[in-house]
Specification:
single chain; alpha+beta; disordered N terminus; eight-stranded antiparallel sheet; 19% helix; 161 residues; 2 helices
Length: 161
């Protein structure tokens, strides 16, 4: 009888602790789940707001691929830019935007995968109310890495073309 009572109490404590943990996770939706360190602050000439970058896979002559992670603080965004061999983005947390020149702005969220075609101007960044974490993959780096262009206007950021 004591063993059953002890087991029941232990089970109730475990369930209670789990419920409390779930409740605290639901209360703070603004905190993102960082997989990698924040990295270095991106240069102001290429970003509006604060964007932090860390390299994960450095370029080399074997794989010719760069992989990294960017954290965009709420409201931060890249300039328009293009990649000679294109770029892939994997959104790992938060909410943000992506736009290819001449196309409507897209909203991005955790789990989205974006393919930016070679040499097409595009930008990406966080929404005004949430930061965004993204992994980027730059293939075929022997063709080049990135060409930075003009700042994204507030109208473009808000969804106007």
């Amino acid at each position: 009888m004591k063993l059953i009572l002890l087991t029941t109490i232990t089970l109730l404590l475990a369930v209670s602790a789990n419920c409390l943990g779930q409740a605290s996770k639901k209360q703070d939706k603004s905190e993102l789940n960082f997989i990698f360190p924040k990295g270095e602050l991106g240069p102001a000439e290429n970003f509006i707001g604060k964007a932090w970058n860390i390299g994960i896979v450095a370029n080399d002559s074997v794989y010719n691929t760069v992989v990294g992670n960017v954290y965009f603080e709420p409201g931060a965004r890249s300039n328009w830019h293009r990649h000679p061999a294109g770029q892939m983005l994997i959104i790992t947390d938060g909410v943000g935007y992506h736009q290819i020149k001449g196309h409507p702005r897209q909203t991005l969220k955790k789990g989205d995968v974006v393919r930016c075609p070679p040499n097409l101007e595009h930008w990406h960044g966080a929404s005004p109310d949430s930061g965004m974490l993204q992994m980027y993959i730059l293939p075929k780096t022997e063709k080049g890495i990135v060409t930075w262009l003009q700042k994204v206007t507030d109208e473009e950021y808000r969804g106007g073309n």
